[in-house]
Design a protein that fits this description.
This protein has about 210 residues and is an alpha/beta fold. It has one domain: Rossmann fold, CATH 3.40.50. The protein is built from ten helices and six strands. It has a six-stranded mixed β-sheet with strand order 5-4-1-2-3-6, sandwiched between helices. Strand 4, helix 6 and strand 5 form a beta-alpha-beta unit. Helix 5 packs across helix 6. The relative contact order is 0.22.
Length: about 210
């Protein structure tokens, strides 16, 4: 198992791109995983992620489509828990790639409080779904710092554009999620079926 290998949840936007850049500067080997939502957001984020991966020399890009899973969260669970459920699901998917790649870490572009759902309480609940340690190099960054750095390393033009991760999200997301309530929401789902559906969409690009 590589102690320097990281599965990066890469959206193609500013935050996850900068997170990967900073970890690579610290000599981590980055293996990006892009979780697309083609049904609702189209394929632009896939193109962005490919451009980012090529720019930084990341030789392999995993891609999965989670549109069906996100719709299941909307249809079956309390809408206020949508972002918590989504991010827990993303960490579980990243864990499957970490198993395959024998990686030691997962990384995200989250920063504390940048959006209303990214509270310390929520982050604690979300991370309990991870089987690997989650690295958050941007945890104390604000958006201006991230955008400024993207201009400096010339990824701004790639990452610029509307954020699409919240298309199905609630106007008033939970900000103080409780693990017991979160697990009850997940019990409303056929989790094995949802996972299998997503895993069956797996593609590997840039090999």
């Amino acid at each position: 198992m590589s102690t320097r290998k990281v599965i990066l949840l890469l959206s193609g936007g500013f935050d996850s791109t900068i997170a990967g850049y900073l970890l690579q500067k610290q000599d981590y080997e980055i293996i990006p995983l892009h979780l697309s939502n083609i049904d609702f957001a189209g394929g632009e984020s896939i193109d962005k992620s490919k451009q980012i991966a090529e720019k930084f020399g990341w030789k392999k890009l995993y891609i999965m489509d989670i549109a069906d899973a996100l719709q299941s969260f909307v249809d079956n669970c309390r809408h206020s828990y949508y972002f918590v459920l989504m991010k827990r699901y993303m960490l579980q998917l990243a864990g499957t790639i970490a198993d395959t790649e024998e990686a030691s870490f997962i990384a995200t572009g989250e920063s504390l409080g940048q959006v209303s759902s990214q509270t310390l309480t929520n982050i604690q609940v979300i991370e309990q779904a991870a089987r690997y340690r989650v690295l958050k190099p941007l945890i104390t960054f604000d958006k201006d710092e991230i955008v400024t750095l993207s201009r400096k390393i010339e990824t701004f033009d790639i990452s610029a554009g509307p954020e699409v991760c919240d298309l199905l999200g609630p106007k008033h997301p939970i900000i103080n999620a409780i693990i017991e309530n979160t697990l009850k929401e997940e019990e409303k789902l056929d989790y094995d079926e949802i996972l299998n559906t997503t895993l069956n969409t797996l593609e590997i690009s840039l090999q």
